[in-house]
Design goal:
Number of domains: 1
Distance between the termini: 37 Å
Order of helices and strands: HHH
Oligomer: single chain
Radius of gyration: 12 Å
Number of helices: 3
Largest sheet: none
């Protein structure tokens, strides 16, 4: 259930990251969803090292780390894209 919950969390995190960083990314909503899912895994993995969320739970700290990871990946994507 952990992987599936992080995929769902990634969808939410991608939407939140897009809300915090609006603009034309060139990839549309599909790229935003994929970045959100990847960001959720990245943020959850990094958050588990500092004790903020874990990859096996679905909580507020996990949502924060997933959104932060999606935001970071969205920034990197914009830098690479331009």
């Amino acid at each position: 259930m952990g992987i599936l919950s992080w995929i769902v969390l990634g969808l939410v995190a991608g939407a939140l990251a897009k809300l915090f960083m609006p603009g034309n990314d060139g990839g549309g909503w599909i790229v935003t969803i994929l970045l959100g899912i990847a960001g959720a895994f990245f943020g959850g993995w990094m958050g588990s090292f500092v004790g903020m969320g874990s990859t096996g739970s679905f909580d507020l700290a996990g949502l924060f780390t997933a959104t932060a990871g999606a935001f970071v990946l969205l920034v990197i994507y914009r830098i690479v894209k331009n």
